[in-house]
């Protein structure tokens, strides 16, 4: 399980260090793709195969499912975590998430997310402000 947030910087070759705590869970082969909320999702190869199956199930008959399948699958990029623990992120994906040099790598249970640093700070501030209201909306015990 991936947990925590880490502030990192991209190098001149569009590589970013994967936090040491995430490396074992991700393995050497990862998939980077567009995510929701204008961030990037990073999956281990095995987790990505499960996720991809979920996106294509029923996609041919449902426009919303087709759209999400295209967003995530066509926008995906297979990458290797190098010997120094870095992963290459293509420019088109960095551009999608408006990421420059500084980024936040966040563990979100089954995936890792990469956010533009200021977007992450704003997003988390907004979530922290509205957490009680969100909790009421998603509380399934009632």
- Name the shape in a single word: globular
Which residue ranges are poorly predicted, with pLDDT under 50 across at least 5 consecutive positions? Answer: none
- Number of helices in the DSSP assignment: 5
The CATH class turns out to be Alpha Beta
Q: Tell me the number of structural domains.
A: 1
- Give the helix level as a range of percent: 40-55%
Question: Architecture, CATH level 2?
Answer: 3-Layer(aba) Sandwich
Terminal Cα span: 28 Å
CATH topology label: Chemotaxis protein chec
Describe this structure in words.
By secondary structure, this protein is α+β, with helices and mostly antiparallel strands. It has a single domain, classed as Chemotaxis protein chec. It has helices spanning 20-26, 45-56, 63-74, 91-96, 117-138, and strands at 2-9, 15-17, 29-34, 40-44, 77-80, 86-88, 102-109, 111-116. The strands form two sheets. It has a six-stranded antiparallel sheet, with helices on both faces. The protein has a two-stranded antiparallel sheet with strand order 2-6. β3 (29-34) and β4 (40-44) form a beta hairpin. It is globular. The mean pLDDT is 93.
Chain-wise SSE layout:
Elements (H helix, E strand, L loop, with lengths): L1 E8 L5 E3 L2 H7 L2 E6 L5 E5 H12 L6 H12 L2 E4 L5 E3 L2 H6 L5 E8 L1 E6 H22 L4
Antiparallel strand pairs: 1-7, 2-6, 3-4, 3-5, 4-8, 7-8
Brief rundown of the structure:
By secondary structure, the protein is an alpha+beta fold. It has helices at about 20-25, 45-55, 65-75, 90-95, 115-140; strands at about 1-10, 15, 30-35, 40-45, 75-80, 85-90, 100-110, 110-115. Helix content is about 40%, strand content about 30%.
